[in-house]
Amino acid sequence: MEVLLGSLKDLTLGNVIMFLIGGLLIYLAIKKDYEPMLLLPIGFGAILANIPSSSAIGENGFLTILYNAGISTELFPILIFIAIGAMIDFGPLLQQPFMLFFGAAAQFGIFMTAILARLLGFSLKEAVSIGIIGAADGPTSIYVANLFAGELLGPISVAAYSYMSLVPLIQPPVIKALTTPEERRITMDLNLHKVSKTTRILFPIMVTAVAGLIAPLSVSLVGSLMFGNLIRECGVLEKLSQAAQNELANLVTLLLGITIGSTMVAENFLTIKTLMILGMGLFAFVFDTAGGVLFAKFLNLFLKRKVNPMVGAAGISAFPMSARVIQKIAQKENPGNFVLMQAVGANVAGQVGSILAGGVLIYLVSSMAL
Predict the structure, then answer these.
(1) pTM here?
(2) What b/e readout covers 28-64, taking b as 16+ CB neighbours within 10 angstroms?
(3) HSE-up of 95 (CA within 13 Å, CB side)?
(4) Mean per-residue pLDDT, 138-163
(5) What is the Cα–Cα distance from 51 to 125, expressed in whole angstroms?
(6) % of the chain surpassing 70 pLDDT
(7) With 28 labelled, which of 12, 18, 22, 304 sits at a CA distance of 20 to 30 A?
């Protein structure tokens, strides 16, 4: 009884607010189906971490042990990338390498947001960590945030995954504001060549080598993603590929989510910085979408066969949600329009582009710190 009264006595308003925030994340995961595999564990982890004298955190707390073993060492994000690589089919990108440009252009929001964060008073490392939210890639956001701004890991992770789940709500208004109905009705070439197995196998190896030479600090991220993809495409490791896509992805996602939630302690999370990060996260997603669309419109000034500018918006790394959103808008404008293959190509290009952008920023910031 005394222990119970002591816990209630130590309960603060901040703890109660975090209980509500954790409950909100769980509600969004279950009721709205917003990134349930991560928002639900994050929400529950936040509740566990904010119970006064919680045995789940602290020197011997299991969540702290998981944090030290999987987040501090950057192991969980790397394992997630292996699983993602095993899930991704780079075929649509290999059929139309031109889509790589959209994967690069849609990273515009990362750099714009980092600059904005710096202007708002955040340190360089914090600004870069916040900017990576614009990668629309949760594992990359976690990796960079843990490397440069561990104290902001909670809000950055929540912002990244929350806005990823809201892509169907965020992207359409931005796209429609920047395009005309005629542009949205532009059809794309459906006569795409078949990609050979040899090309599929060589692609992850070559990307790893090239990315490593350009941005060596991106090798952990790019290498793990491409290793997962090589397992998928080699044709002799089907059981390992399925294990990476299912068991590995599910287990690590579960542990990653609840561990991130444990960092959302009231005194660290309930700050003006958190609100600013959530606002800048939305800013990043909007500018990523706008950057891809505007780049496509710019290319159309020089191309004989025009590109549907909506495809540029799929260059963000929110795979495959963004590609589906683009196809849905295209068919609403013209029921016979099929741009899904091009949108998927841009989407997987964005997956690679976001990792390379993260690696470049890690390299630049680390160089400045020397």
Answers:
(1) 0.84
(2) bbeeeebbbebbbbbbbbbbbbbbeebebbeeebebb
(3) 18
(4) 86
(5) 31
(6) 97
(7) 12
- At residue 7, the pLDDT reads 60
Nearest Cα to Cα of residue 30 among 39, 22, 21: 39
CB of 149 closer than 8 Å to CB of 124: no
What is the residue whose two structure tokens read 């252009």?
A: 105
227, HSE (Cβ side, Cα atoms, 13 Å) = 14
Q: What are phi and psi of 306, to 5 degrees?
A: -70, 150
User: Do the beta carbons of residue 69 and residue 75 sit within 8 Å?
Assistant: yes
Considering only CA atoms, which of 49, 366, 97 is closest in space to residue 220?
A: 366
CA distance 82 to 244: 7
DSSP string, 260-286: HHTT--HHHHSSHHHHHHHHHHHHHHH
Phi, psi of 246 (to 5 degrees): -110, -75
One-letter amino acid for residue 333 of the chain = E
Chain-centroid distance, C-alpha 127 = 17
In Å, what is the CA distance from 365 to each residue of 98, 106, 126, 283?
Answer: 30, 21, 11, 22
305, with CB counted inside 10 A (0-12, 13-18, 19+), is: exposed
